[in-house]
Amino acid sequence: MGHPTIYPTGVTIYNPEEAWGGYTILQAAETGALLIDMNGREVQLWKGLHGFPNKLLPGGQVFGSTGIRNPRYGFQDQLDLVQVDWEGTIVWRFERTEFVSDPGEEPRWVARQHHDFQREGNPVGYYAPGLDPKTGEGNTLILVHEEVLNTAISEKRLIDDKIIEVDWSGTIVWEWRANEHFEELEFDEEARRIIFSDPNLRPIEGGLGDWLHINSLSALGPNRHFDAGDARFHPDNLIWDAREANLIAIIEKKSGKIVWKLGPRYDGNEREKRLGWIIGQHHAHLIPRGLPGEGNLLLFDNGGWAGYGEASPGAPNGRMNALRDYSRVLEIDPVTLEIVWQYTPFEAGFDVPLDAARFYSPFISSAQRFVNGNTLITEGSDGRVFEVTEDHRIVWEYISPYHLSAGRGPGGGMNMVYRAYRAPYGWVPQLEKPVEREIPPLDRSTFRVPGAAPAGRQRETPVDGVRGYSRDTDYCVISR
Question: 327 is in which domain, residue-wise?
Answer without folding.
Answer: 10-433
